[in-house]
Amino acid sequence: MTTSSGSVHAAPAAAPLYLTFDDNALLGALYGEHDRHLARIEQKLGVSVTSRGNRLAVTGPPPATNAARDVLLDLYDMLERGLPVGAQEVDAALRMTGGKRPPGPVPTGASATEMVIRTQKRHIMPRSTNQATYIQALYDNELVFGIGPAGTGKTYLAVAAASTLLARGEVDRLVLSRPAVEAGERLGFLPGDLREKVDPYLRPLYDALYDMMPADKVVSRLQNGEIEIAPLAFMRGRTLANAFVILDEAQNTTPVQMKMFLTRLGENSRMAITGDPSQVDLPHGARSGLDEALSIIGALDEATVVRFHNADVVRHPLVTRIVRAYEAYEARQPRDREVGPNRRGPGP
């Protein structure tokens, strides 16, 4: 079998699977320093990879060698298109192509590795199948819910897609919001003027923006109103037209706040709502507006819900183990048991 990325010669099941790559200049990045990328693939898939110049021999059980082939060809294809390949990209390719895929359909119309969000400062690729599905949904749908644990890229990818559409002129402005009062605190007890009070709550949104575009562009667009970052309370009474609107930390909205926010959607606008139902900071007994919205409108044809899982966590590997440990602990507790005044899982 021959592909644009190289040639693959199928061999009997007991024999190695051989891959030959055409551009020797890309092999250093493909193999990694001291072949560390190949070692990572060997470790994760249980295969042996031997390099001889531009030819690799992959030995192991057929399903594992086929997975290794797909990973290597995906990474080589990235390099051919001028995209960087490092340890994170190798892990992403293993999640996308390896045997332990999280639940969720593979996006149609393009392979996941081709779904690159090109911002002014960096190229962002999906690092799990669900991330690829989420990116596709953000571009294709007017209302998208991104639901799942911390570290799965829910907000980061939404900001990346929104900033790309803003740069293309497909929307006129980007509106980012989140509940400003968390864990029982009140803004009135914080020092400073209104902006100084709300900025700490909105800082993750600022951080994402500065990661997508040059600082001077962020500042100028904040000043001219093309980018607006505001607490949820400021949304009442508005109609947001020609905009990409993102609500972060939506699990901390009340049902009234969520209904208010959803009805802000105007002409030629799209909305992304992200949240982690396991990290609710509302008073004990209060229902999350995110939970209610999912039960009421989550089944609408116009609404797309993408649910992330532990396998989609793309932060430090320890974060995945922390999330799993908390889930296992909470599963052992009685349903009505609370720790402190709030229901909160692992922090973001």
Record keyword descriptors for this entry.
about 350 residues; alpha/beta; disordered C terminus; 11 helices; five-stranded antiparallel beta sheet
Description of the molecule:
With 348 residues, this protein is of the alpha/beta class. It is 39% helix and 17% strand. It is built from 11 helices and 15 strands. It has a 6-stranded parallel sheet, sandwiched between helices. The protein is globular. Mean pLDDT is 80; it is low at 10-14, 99-113 and 336-348.
Largest sheet: 6 strands, parallel
Poorly predicted tracts of residues: 10-14, 99-113, 336-348
Radius of gyration over all CA atoms, rounded = 22 Å
Please give the share of residues in helix. 25-40%
Order of strands across the main sheet: 10-9-11-12-8-14
Number of E strands = 15
Terminal Cα separation, in Å? Answer: 45 Å
Proportion in β-strands: 15-25%
> Tally the helices: what do you get?
11
Oligomer: single chain
> What is the mean predicted local confidence, pLDDT?
80
What is the 3D form?
A: globular
Order of helical and strand elements: EEEHHEEHHEEHEHEHHEEHEEHEHE
Which class do the helix and strand fractions yield?
Answer: alpha/beta
